[in-house]
Amino acid sequence: MKDAGNWFETFTQNAKEDDIQLKTELINSARPVDYVILEYAEEQKIDLIVVGTRGRTGFKKLMLGSIASSIVTMLIVLSWL
After folding, report:
1. Which of 5, 13, 15, 52 could be a cystine partner for 20, CB 3.0 to 4.6 Å?
2. Domain tally for the chain?
3. Could you read off the pLDDT of 18-28 as tens digits, one per residue?
4. CA-to-CA distance for 31 and 56, rounded, in angstroms?
5. Is 26 within 8 Å of 8 (Cβ atoms)?
6. Model-level pTM greater than 0.85?
7. Between these two residues, 43 and 65, which has the higher pLDDT value?
8. Are residues 1 and 40 in the same domain?
């Protein structure tokens, strides 16, 4: 968690230097990351989620999964409900 906090602090400082308004929040949870992100977005009434990928393809992506893919899939399903 400390490394993540340091990364967010540096990222936030760089954004401020470029006059970019940014809100960050570090959430510690034992639940799957994709569920936590979507739950937080719903609670905070967030209408845009930006996630990156590491570029895994093929077998690695199949075995390791993708949080970004999972979030997009869940958002599509939720939008149909």
Report:
1. 15
2. 2
3. 999 887 788 88
4. 23
5. yes
6. no
7. 43
8. no
